[in-house]
Design brief:
single chain, mainly alpha, 3 helices, 74% helix, elongated
Length: 66
């Protein structure tokens, strides 16, 4: 029974930390672009066409942010 007096507050603190961490990740933009990293593994970094597409995407992001 005495262990519950320790385990319950620890569990509540861990849940609160997990919720804070999730909201921090959302606010800092961690979930902004979920598709590009998954697709970029399919392309060769040395390919000039791929580099042009990456630069175009970066310029589009900069234009959208402004």
């Amino acid at each position: 029974m005495a262990a519950l007096y320790v385990m319950i507050p620890v569990a509540v603190i861990l849940v609160a930390f997990a919720i804070w961490l999730f909201f921090w990740a959302v606010d800092s933009g961690q979930y902004e672009d979920l598709d590009s990293p998954a697709h970029s593994i399919l392309f060769d970094d040395e390919d000039p066409k791929h580099q042009a597409g990456v630069e175009e995407a970066r310029n589009g992001e900069n234009d959208r942010d402004a």
